């Protein structure tokens, strides 16, 4: 049973087809990489899967729920890191995680344990009482990471989550994502950093100009001795 499924999903802005009839399935336990050049429709796909925008046509299901009809239900179930989103400027890092924890119905000692775990794991406990407006971009991204996974969602949809992190943090986050998926959860990750996708994703899809060019398993490419970036370039240039 796929945990994410789209059928000929499309989003148009005037004459522009941001996403153009994409059908895909993501199985439970996958670390699924949605890859594509700038403007290929990755963020639009994530927005439709999380009910932030409605498709122009076609449909989607996330954990058996249609995000266009029951967006709030989908957002209760999943974790989300939107692209270039930052936490509220007027809250401290600690306040923001408590705020998210309450929405996620995590309370009392569990709240403290879970948020402390993230502050320690991503090594930013010293920033707990700093207002988010005064945090560096990388630290804000750590916070966005923590908020998405605080309630240990079965499915997380994360848009370019590693872009502002230094190499040490990138490694930690990559390990976390691999373990998280290996323990039966599903991650839908959008990125244009192909090395990251090749290293951690179990499956991938390539979008170009809103169209799905390919879906496959990263292991199959490795077995053939093909690098993802060569495969990607050839496919995108050919289309
Ligand atoms: N609200 C909107 N109104 C009009 N056009 C939009 C809107 N949102 C996205 N687009 C257009 O849709 C196309 C796909 O955009 P999208 O942000 O989904 O791409 P992306 O693959 O996430 O790109 P990037 O890697 O640069 O973040 C782009 O041409 C973009 O300009």
From TrEMBL:
It comes from the Archaea. Residues 4-234 form the ABC transporter domain. The keyword Nucleotide-binding applies. One of its GO terms (molecular function) is ATP hydrolysis activity. PROSITE patterns: ABC_TRANSPORTER_2. Keywords: ATP-binding, Nucleotide-binding, Transport. CDD domains: ABC_DR_subfamily_A. InterPro entries: AAA+_ATPase, ABC_transporter-like_ATP-bd, ABC_Transporter_VariousFunc, P-loop_NTPase. Pfam families: ABC_tran. This is ABC transporter related protein. It comes from Methanolacinia petrolearia (strain DSM 11571 / OCM 486 / SEBR 4847).
């Amino acid at each position: 049973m796929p945990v994410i499924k789209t059928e000929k999903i499309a989003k148009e802005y005037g004459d522009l087809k941001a996403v153009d009839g994409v059908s895909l399935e993501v199985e439970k336990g996958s670390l699924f990489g949605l890859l594509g050049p700038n403007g290929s429709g990755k963020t639009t796909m994530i927005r439709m899967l999380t009910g932030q925008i409605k498709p122009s046509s076609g449909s989607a299901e996330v954990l058996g729920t249609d995000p266009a009809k029951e967006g709030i239900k989908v957002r209760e179930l999943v974790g989300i890191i939107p692209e270039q989103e930052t936490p509220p400027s007027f809250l401290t890092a600690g306040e923001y995680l408590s705020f998210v924890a309450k929405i996620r119905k995590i309370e009392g000692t569990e709240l403290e344990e879970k948020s402390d775990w993230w502050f320690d794991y991503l090594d930013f406990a010293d920033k707990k009482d700093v207002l988010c407006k005064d945090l560096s971009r990388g630290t804000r991204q750590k916070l966005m990471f923590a908020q998405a996974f605080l309630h240990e969602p079965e499915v997380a949809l994360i848009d370019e989550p590693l872009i502002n992190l230094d190499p040490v943090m990138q490694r930690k986050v990559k390990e976390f994502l691999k373990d998280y998926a290996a323990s039966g959860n599903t991650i839908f990750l959008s990125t244009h950093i192909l090395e990251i996708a090749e290293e951690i994703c179990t499956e991938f899809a390539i979008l170009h100009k809103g169209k799905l060019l390919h879906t496959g398993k990263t292991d199959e490419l490795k077995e053939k001795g093909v690098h993802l970036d060569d495969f990607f370039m050839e496919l995108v240039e050919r289309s």
